[in-house]
Amino acid sequence: MEWYAILLVLLGTLILFMALGLPVVFAFFATNLVGAYVFMGGENGILQLVRNAVDSVQSFALLPIPLFILMGEIMFYTGIAERAIDAVDKLIARVPGRLSLVAITGGTIFASLSGSTIANTAMLGSTLLPEMYRRGYKPSISIGPIVAVGGIAMLIPPSALAVLLGSIAQIPVGALLVASIIPALILAALFFAYVIIRCRLDPSLAPPYEVRELTWRERLMPFVKYVVPLSGIFVVVVGSIIGGIATPTESAALGAAASLIAAAAYRRLTRKNFVISIRQTLRFTVMTLFIICGSITFSQIMAFSQASNGLSAAVLGAGLTPLALLIAMLAILMFLGCFMDQVSMMMITVPLFMPLVQQFGFEQVWFGVLMLMILEISLATPPFGLLLFVAKGAAPDNSMREIIGSVAPFIAIALFVVALLVAFPELTLVLPRMMAP
């Protein structure tokens, strides 16, 4: 059977199972069973598939996923993150769009502690949106920053999705984690600048209001008490990786331990919120391991059946320039992001894209960051962007059209940053190259 027929059978079977209503993960497993039986020798192929699935989740490199998830859950359920955002609120003085800037700054800080896009957006929406509306903020300058900065959690370590992408695509996890830091900070800075400029041009978007006068001590002490120590957790996680002191797995363990110590030190750690954090961590971890099983075994079937090699040869023979191929792959991700969740996008595209990335000689860490950027953008693209629905839950009185209109300028800014990273790959590679061998 020709490679394109094999590819059509595998993808067609996957789409069929998804159309029948199977969850994406189980649709992949069903497709893998069909592919193993047809292309890997019947029952022997299925036995080999089972062995490969077990091997795929026994890697020590996967341990950062539950540990990073645990960090975020502890920060969220103990309420420490909310105190940090309150401290940022006190620190920022009278500037245009003050509360929107608090959302961007606080969201970026929380992203460096949790790595959960949904938790980030939900927390900011529930704590800041009511206050914004009470102060007369327009939806166009209140919802957009909260949704946009929520996606930054996908980029700044600790990011469980970055670990998942690195595991599936066989990209060095430590390098991928630190490579995302500079793009995330550029995004946050541009969001910050956009809000200030927009509010200066149209003050009615965020009417000024009287802020209680605080002494410098009253403004700085909450920041020193709640933000600086928590920022130390980020320094521990990232610094230990860059300095070569710890592997990503060891740094994740340090971060999880530091989160527990911080929660206990602030007297926010109770038996109830600890059990909830563990339960949520187990739930997300099991789901993630199923995803890894399904995706890696799908990639193996693609390779065994020669479908991957055939696709690579066809693309190489088409005479596409590397830039044209890169734009095409990113455009496919953007299109899929309008209809699918990020994990499903990774599971479908990584087995197809990574052989092409290797054939064309792209830097894998750089491509991984670009992929994370597009996945981050797709969280807010209509009609099915996940964070749009989280924002709708936090702002039920706003129409989806208002929410999308508020988010659109921030999507444009994120696409500009993608173009910047394509033009200047060093922005993503400078920190990984500082990592000790």
Gyration radius from CA atoms, angstroms? 22 Å
Q: What percent of residues adopt helix (DSSP H or I)?
A: over 70%
Give the terminus-to-terminus CA distance.
45 Å
- Unreliable runs: none
Tally of alpha and pi helices: 21
Shape: globular
Structure class: mainly alpha
Q: Which strand-content bin applies to the residues? A: under 5%
- The H/E string reads HHHHHHHHHHHHHHHHHHHHH
What would the average pLDDT be, to the nearest integer?
Answer: 82
When the domains are counted, the total is 1
**Major β-sheet profile:** none
**How many beta-strand runs?**
0
What can you see in these coordinates?
The chain has 437 residues and is mainly alpha-helical. It has one domain (3-434). The protein has 21 helices and no strands. Helix 6 runs antiparallel to helix 7. The model has no long low-confidence stretch (mean pLDDT 82).
Name its key features:
437 residues
In short:
The chain is mainly α. The chain is built from 21 helices and no strands.
Blueprint of the fold:
Blueprint: H1 3-19, H2 24-39, H3 43-56, H4 64-77, H5 80-91, H6 98-114, H7 117-134, H8 139-152, H9 160-169, H10 173-179, H11 181-201, H12 216-242, H13 248-265, H14 271-304, H15 307-317, H16 322-337, H17 342-359, H18 364-378, H19 386-394, H20 400-423, H21 426-434
Helix pairs in contact: 1-2, 1-15, 2-3, 2-14, 3-14, 4-9, 4-13, 4-14, 5-6, 5-12, 6-7, 6-8, 6-11, 7-8, 7-19, 8-11, 8-19, 8-20, 9-10, 9-17, 10-21, 11-20, 12-13, 14-17, 15-17, 16-17, 16-18, 17-18, 18-20
